[in-house]
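SAMPLE LOG
Freezer: B-3
Tube label: C17
Construct: single chain, 287 aa
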Amino acid sequence: MKTWRSFFISSVAISIFSAISTTVPFSPVISQATVIGSQSKPISHPAPDLHLKNSPQNLAQSGLYLAEGNFKFAGRAPIYYSNGQGHYCWYQTPQDYQRLTGGVTPRTQSGKLGDYNAIYDGICTGGSSIPAPHPDPEWTATESSVRFPIKLNSGQKTVGSHWYMETNITVSNNGRIDGVTKTKSCQRQGFTGGVWIALIDKESAQDANILHITPVQHYGINGKDPFGGCKDRTDPWSDTFPADISDRIRGIVIYQHHTPKVRVTKEDVYEAIRLGVEIYKASQTGQ
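STRUCTURE (predicted):
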C-alpha cells in the first residue's frame, strides 16, 4: 500500500511539473549575454540564424537581428560574436578566438552582414569591445546601405525675416566632413547664423543614437544696401569624426539657425529632432 501511495504522489508531482512546463515555456532571454565579449563559454547548440522583430528580446526593436553566439559566413574569413541584441564584434586573430571561446566551432550564418540589423562594435576582448575598422566591409553592404561619400544639400532655409542659410556637406568614410555654407540677408538688418551637423545611427527619430556632433560654425552677414540687392557670403568649413563609426551612419541632421549657441550638446540634438528637424537618410545620398 505504501508503494502504491508513493507511486501516486510521484505521478501527481510529475503531472503538475509537466503542466507548469507547458504553460510557462522557458525563455532564452534570461540566459542571453547583454555585453559584447562575454562569449567565453562554448556554445554547443547554436541558436537559429535570426531573432525576428516580434521575439521577446527584440520586441521594442525593428528588423532582423543576429542570434547570440559565435558565427561566420561561408567563404569569408572573419569570425564574429553577436550578443543577440543588435551588436556584434570581431575576433581579430585565431589566437584570440581560441583563448576567448575554447575553439568551439562557430555557426555558419546565412546571407550576409548587410541583411541584418546589426551594429559593429569593434574587436572582441571578452569585455568591452575595442573600436576598429570593419574586417570585411564589402559583406556589410546591401542595396540600401550607405555608399560613401555621402553628399547632401539642405536647400535654402529661412532662419528669420528675409534671412536665409544653405549648406552643402560631404561625409567621407575616412572620418571627414566637408561643408560649404551660404548665409544671406535680404533685409536691411544683418544677422549671425550658425550651422551644425549631427550623425545618427537611424534613418528616423525613433530611438536614434547620436554618433557625432560638429562644432557650431558661425557666420555674420550685413543687411542689404538701401537700394541694392541681398547680401550674402559663402564659407567652406570642415570637421573630423572617428572613422570607425562610418558603417553605423544612417541619418544626418543639418541644423541652421540665427543667433546660434556657442556649443551644441546631445540634448540640443534630441530637442531639434523632437521639434521636427529634417533627418536626411544617408542610404539615399551616396554619390
